[in-house]
Amino acid sequence: MGKKKQIILENIRLMKLVHGGQCIGQNEHGKAVFVWGGLPGELVDIRVTKKKSSYLEGIVTQVHEASDDRIEPVEPLSYLSTSPWQIMTIDAENAAKHSILTEAFEREGVEDLLFEPFVASASGRTVRVDGFIPAPGTIRNPEGVSYMGYRNKNEFGFWGADDGLHLAHYVRGTNGKQMVTESKLAHESINQAARDVRDELNRLDVWAGKLKTVLIRSSQAGEAVAALFIKEEINMSDFTLPNSLKGIDVYYSDPQSPASVPTKKLYSLGDITLSDTINGKEISYDVMSFFQVNIPIFEQALGQIKAHSSGTSRVVDMYSGVGAIGIAVGADVLIDSDDANIAMAKQNVTGTDTTVVHATAETALDHIKSGDTLIVDPPRAGLHKDVVQRILDIQPSKIIYLSCNPSTQARDVKLLLEKYKVVHAQGFNFFPRTPHIESLFILELK
């Protein structure tokens, strides 16, 4: 059976970048086309990768008229896999994220939350909005010129070739992989550790088809730990821990699941815990627990959170992870559902009066009380509907809402405006060269 014929759309004018990171245009019939590798205003050819009744998806194959914001990607062969916004200037990236963040709230009908440095007033609400913090230089990359090297966590796949096992990333828009030796977004300690794991697997003659991924984390000091996910319970007892790794856990991960999640721990070598000092507090975390990816800019957000929670009454940190936010602001209660997060959170609160609760947010509603300051940093799905309802019923005095998904945050903020007013709103470029956006809202009872 022959290969499926490629569909190429020629001379498509692109309009704007949208939530999710693609650039939108239209084909000759007016159908929306969402594409990777293009910028607003460009005239491009597109290879279609997905056809739906109401839209198409694709990848730019040729640029006929380039945007003034276009630059050469630092990783020309693999940038689309992990950091598709390498093709634009950092100023264009920051502007696009500001616009996407603003539009997310406009879609929910809260037009006065515009992330601009001015006072906006509508429908009886007055909102002070403090703008958007662009990506700064990092400790690892002090000049901040290329905005690379900031990630303290990175995951690599594997690819088998005639000359052995290689690190790899999936190629966006396909089921294929691209061989790589590093990620420019990651700290070099992560890249070195990934290469050393690859080399050790080659020494053991492990076939790529038995592997899923390797996850590497590093501290700001450059210590690295890893989790290796494999599809079969193969004998890995001869695996030797490379000098570049402090520790590694090897997990069997159900091959029926595309995600690299632990099904069963098979081996553990060394110590898979790390620690960093966050706003003066030492926070420990391990390879599987949740911890912020870009510490320097996270500390800027944390400074704002601390300023708005200082001097308040009881503080509850829901979706707390290992406690990086809650501990820094002296929270009374940390709530999280993940086993790895809870283990680290309990270690981090040693010597304090902070209570750690192992529960999902929606089953820990009794911990939200009137008069509380409630901190939430939920996953991309946003707040559980029962959490929103509990807030509206009990009415804690202040809500501090950090989010990695402006669409679900906008949905939740719209609901909370029934009883609350926004006193502070801030966007952050936590993840330079990618479409991901972080935003912080502070809400107080009306």
What does the average pLDDT come to?
Answer: 90
Q: Using the CA coordinates, give the radius of gyration.
A: 23 Å
- Oligomeric assembly: single chain
Strand order of the largest sheet: 8-23-24-22-21-18-19-20
Low-confidence stretches: 116-130
Secondary structure category: alpha/beta
CATH topology of the largest domain: Rossmann fold
Q: Could you give me the name of the CATH homologous superfamily of the largest domain?
A: Vaccinia Virus protein VP39
Distance between the termini: 66 Å
Number of helices: 8
Counting DSSP E segments of at least 2 residues, the number of strands comes to 24
Quote the beta fraction: 25-35%
The global form is globular
Primary descriptors:
eight-stranded mixed beta sheet, seven-stranded mixed beta sheet, single chain, 24 strands, 8 helices, OB fold (Dihydrolipoamide Acetyltransferase, E2P), 446 residues, Rossmann fold
Please give a structural write-up.
The chain is globular, with a radius of gyration of 23 Å. Mean pLDDT is 90; it is low at 116-130. The strands form five sheets. Strands 8-23-24-22-21-18-19-20 form an eight-stranded mixed sheet, with helices on both faces. It has a seven-stranded mixed sheet with strand order 11-10-9-12-13-14-15. Strands 1-2-3-5-4 form a five-stranded mixed β-barrel. It is built from eight helices and 24 strands. Helix 2 (90-107) packs parallel to helix 8. It is an alpha/beta fold and 446 residues long. It has three domains: 8-70, OB fold (Dihydrolipoamide Acetyltransferase, E2P), CATH 2.40.50; 92-137 and 293-445, Rossmann fold (3-Layer(aba) Sandwich), CATH 3.40.50; 153-276, OB fold (Dihydrolipoamide Acetyltransferase, E2P) (Beta Barrel).
